[in-house]
Amino acid sequence: MQQIASFFNFKALKTNYRRETLAGFTTFISMAYILFVNPSVLGATGMDKGAVFTATALASALGCLLMGLVAKYPIAIAPSLGVNAFFAYSVCIGMKIPWQTALAGVFVAAVLFMIITALKLREAIINAIPRDLKMAIAAGIGLFIAFLGLNDGGLIVANKSTVVGLGSLSVGTTWLTIFGLVITAILMTRRVPGAIFIGMVCSTLLGLVTGLIPLPHTIISTAPSLQPTFLVALKNIGHINSLQLVVVVLTFLLVTFFDTAGTLVGLAEQAGFMKDNKMPRVGQALFADSTSMLVGSLLGTSPTGAYVESSAGIAVGGRSGFTVIVTGVLFIVSLIFSPLLAIVTSQVTAPALIIVGVLMAQSLRNIDWDKLEIAIPAFLIVLGMPLTYSISDGIALGFVMYPITMVAAKRGKEVHPLMYVLFFVFLGFLWIMNAQ
Question: Which GO cellular component terms are attached (predicted)?
Answer without folding.
Answer: plasma membrane
